[in-house]
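Limitations

Structures in this collection are predictions, not experimental determinations, and the ligand pose is part of the prediction. Treat each record accordingly. The example that follows, with adenosine-5-diphosphoribose as the small molecule, is included so readers can see exactly what is and is not provided: the inputs are given verbatim, and the output is the predicted complex.
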Amino acid sequence: MPLKIIRNDITKIPCDAVVNAANRLLAGGGGVDGAIHRAAGQELYDACSKLGGCPTGKAKITDGFNMPCKYIIHTVGPVWRGGDKNEPELLASCYRESLILAKEYKCESVAFPLISAGAYGYPKEEALHIAVSEISRFLMKNEMTVYIVVYDSECFQTSKKLLSDVEEYIDQHYIDEHFTPRNSTVFYDEPPSKLNIMERMLGAKGLTGRADSHSCRSCHLPCEEKTVEPDLNEMLDSLDESFSQMLLRKIDEKGMTDVQCYKKANIDRKLFSKIRSNINYKPSKQTVLAFAIALELSLDETRDMLMKAGFALSHSSKFDVIIEYFIKNKRYDIFEINEVLFSFDQLMLGS
Ligand code: APR
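Predicted complex:
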């Protein structure tokens, strides 16, 4: 997956490069810097001491030593001084410079902590927002898997206004199973059963079977009624459009290229090729929704695409209600959606 926000200790992430929130002397310190130095060992101190420091907004690279990564990229974030001392640009530059370096060293996966969001005092939600926008801009043009690693004890929020709007929407639409009386009607879509699909196909295609003669209950007279005896082979020959076929058709209809679509969907190239080359590919629900968002589908079209893969949107699921909120409000920025899903402890969209 190209961009993923995860909760973990960054020293435990196996990837090509881990980014360190360092200071200008590259002399080690507390926070993530201290954790990385402890995990990497004395050799990292020695390697850093030969680098001649690093200016704010820039990045330098060393080996990973005892860390489970090949490289450690050291970048120096700005100290927060109220926001009008060029902090946003300097912080964005940390992500850019680190990613350029990672690319130069042919890294396929990179993990970032929230640079400047600890000792340097940058407000966490703004720091996260800059991280997400800068990384996603880079990923639009480059193939790489990037993790933003948020530390266990941290609680952060995305835009408070957006979160409260989503919360309100959830309150109005989310049906918590525990509060739904067993016998009441629950209004949610169910994935169609095989039987439903067969019934629909028979209905739609007007398939008929042999004529059967029997007594009709309502008129009490023998009557001729066509009963249906489906021909399985015929039905299998006339299956509906698959998920993969619908996806490719929609990409064409929207005038997008494949690359534009899978990048916007936060899906990696390999997964997209699998879907493209296998018309019967069975994607996960997160993958289908990622494409629905990238293609800016309406709610009905999204439901249709989900159904092709055997899924539905349900008001019994918080995840589904959040997705519905964004689609109804035509907010199709997958990274914004993922930030909100993350805040609600839900799975995120993408590969
Ligand atoms: N894994 C992931 N994230 C972590 C970890 C960890 N093991 N430890 C801390 N963090 C988080 C913090 O919670 C914070 O959100 O990393 C983010 C960055 O915090 P700091 O490490 O304090 O980095 P920063 O704000 O950029 O300050 C850099 O602190 O340690 C010194 O030498 C460093 O002087 C420099 C300054």
